[in-house]
Write a structure and sequence with these properties.
about 90 residues; about 30% helix; alpha+beta; 4-stranded antiparallel β-sheet; 4 strands; 2 helices
Length: about 90
């Protein structure tokens, strides 16, 4: 059964988009993609101060590892996070 790591962080709406994308492209995304069981991921921005990341893994163990990477100290301020079983896809 697939699992997803879901993380929400604070994003300054006035921050440099190019810098955020460079950090994602150069550091975060390659590291997440290299984790065992990685399936796919989305990084979302509500343009009101919250970023949401959903990373799907083949199993719960992979999702736990992904959650640990995405919530470690040094990143943007954490709003919330959790593991979710994927019940359906379209």
């Amino acid at each position: 059964m697939a699992y997803a790591a879901l993380v929400q962080v604070e994003i300054d709406p006035g921050s440099d988009v190019a810098l955020r994308h460079a950090i994602l492209d150069e550091f975060v995304i390659p590291e997440v993609r290299s984790l065992p069981g990685f399936v796919r991921a989305l990084w979302l921005n509500d343009r009101a101060g919250t970023g949401t990341c959903v990373v799907v893994f083949e199993d719960e163990e992979g999702a736990r590892a992904g959650l640990a990477v995405l919530t470690r100290p040094g990143g943007p301020p954490l709003v919330g996070s959790g593991l979710h079983e994927v019940e359906a896809e379209a």
